[in-house]
Fold this sequence. Notes:
Blueprint: E1 2-11, E2 19-29, E3 34-39, H1 45-53, E4 60-65, E5 68-69, H2 75-78, E6 82-85, H3 99-107, H4 115-118, H5 121-133, H6 151-163, E7 169-173, H7 181-198, E8 201-205, H8 209-214, E9 218-223, E10 226-232, H9 233-238, H10 241-250, H11 256-263
Parallel strand pairs: 3-8, 3-9, 6-7, 7-8
Antiparallel strand pairs: 1-2, 1-4, 4-5, 9-10
Helix pairs in contact: 3-6, 6-7
The protein binds adenosine-5'-diphosphate and magnesium ion.
Residues 45-46 line the site of magnesium ion.
Amino acid sequence: MLEVHNLCKSFDKGTVNEKRVFDNLNLNVNKGEFVTIIGSNGAGKSTLLNIIAGSLESDSGEIILDNKNITRLPEYKRSAFMGRVLQDPSKGVAPSMTILENMSMAYNKGKSFNLTLGVSKKNISHFKEMLSQLNLGLENKLNDKVGVLSGGQRQALSLLMAVMKKPKLLLLDEHTAALDPKTSQRLNSITEEIIKESLITTLMITHNMNHAISMGNRLLMMHEGEIVLDISGESKKHITVKRLLDHFDSLDLGDSLSDRALLA
Ligand SMILES: Nc1ncnc2c1ncn2[C@@H]1O[C@H](COP(=O)(O)OP(=O)(O)O)[C@@H](O)[C@H]1O
Ligand SMILES: [Mg+2]
């Protein structure tokens, strides 16, 4: 479904601050795979998702999605077939608009439309049905402004909006990290349910190793722009936090203690 070929990316090229993040990174993701991604701070996890989403340009390399080369496709065009939820609960929604308006916007993504025309009765019952699956009571708050919702409710709404048009790819970048542990757990369950039901190919970055292990069917560990561990199937089922940490230590990294602390 997704192919990343020979990806190279540096920031601040030609300056004293030049930072090479990727030097020929390759990654293939099969249709329906749910990939969790962990890694030390600055490993390039967000940069990778940003390049796939089109919000960052690579220096070279190609991004192929569903056999189409989308390397030069602008972000707004990719968003028609990619869903995305980021860490910040204020980013994925329009706070001054109502739940209904936000959902209508997501529903009409990629079309030019008039908002009033975009909200039909049929859509309203469809939206209510989707919201009630979250078990957060949002189905009775369609006309509430999203700005008054809690962080967890907003992230759940963002997630619903991201998957509403059955994207070919769902990109989650620490989408539960800003939430308290209980809400984070709840949103993770919702995430799992939605992905299981819709079978959307997903890449999910998390800083929580337990979540990376328990969720998804493939796990990637990244470090300094490289994929240093890639496990799926039975190996993924039997991995433990201790083994992940041991693997990280075995990489023989100069500064592994601080990196290990970050990863934990
Ligand atoms: N816009 C940017 N300008 C300069 N450097 C950046 C920028 N974005 C990321 N970086 C650098 O690229 C590296 C990878 O960052 P990032 O992808 O955010 O890491 P991760 O998400 O794995 O923590 C880091 O060293 C970071 O400082
Ligand atoms: Mg990041």
